[in-house]
Design brief:
Elements: E1 2-6, E2 9-11, E3 17-24, E4 29-38, E5 45-51, E6 56-58, E7 66-71, E8 76-81, E9 90-100, E10 103-106, E11 112-116
Parallel strand pairs: 2-11
Antiparallel strand pairs: 1-3, 3-8, 4-5, 4-9, 5-6, 7-8, 9-10, 9-11
Length: about 120
């Protein structure tokens, strides 16, 4: 099983980025996918999640600006980030909660850097 997160980069305040989190391999199911972020000197925080039944949740700080979605056919979850603010700058991590090989597996991506700067 492999996990690939991508889509980070440098953007000006007010700009947009779309992060992707792709899971490949012999996965039986993906029960939910979390997106976390961690800025320097700060604790990791949950930004959003989506469940297998498409229930979504957002941190108050990103509501109305970020949208989490998924493409089940390719086991990929997206985080569309609009109206980015300076305080959104962080390393973003995807965290799929999966089931395969007879047990649950909590996967972590390598993180993708989002830089918001004018």
């Amino acid at each position: 099983v492999q996990l690939q997160a991508s889509g980070g980069g440098l953007v000006q305040p007010g700009g947009s980025l779309r992060l992707s989190c792709a899971v490949s391999g012999s996965i039986v199911s993906i029960n939910a996918v979390n997106w976390y972020r961690q800025a320097p000197g700060k604790q990791r925080e949950l930004v959003a999640f989506i469940t297998s039944s498409n229930i979504t949740h957002y941190a108050d700080s990103v509501k109305g600006r970020f949208t989490i979605s998924k493409n089940h056919a390719v086991n990929t979850v997206y985080l569309q980030m609009n109206s980015l603010k300076l305080e959104d700058a962080a390393v973003y991590y995807c965290n799929p909660l999966t089931y395969y090989s007879g047990s649950s597996h909590d996967l972590w991506g390598q993180g993708t850097q989002v830089t918001v700067s004018s």
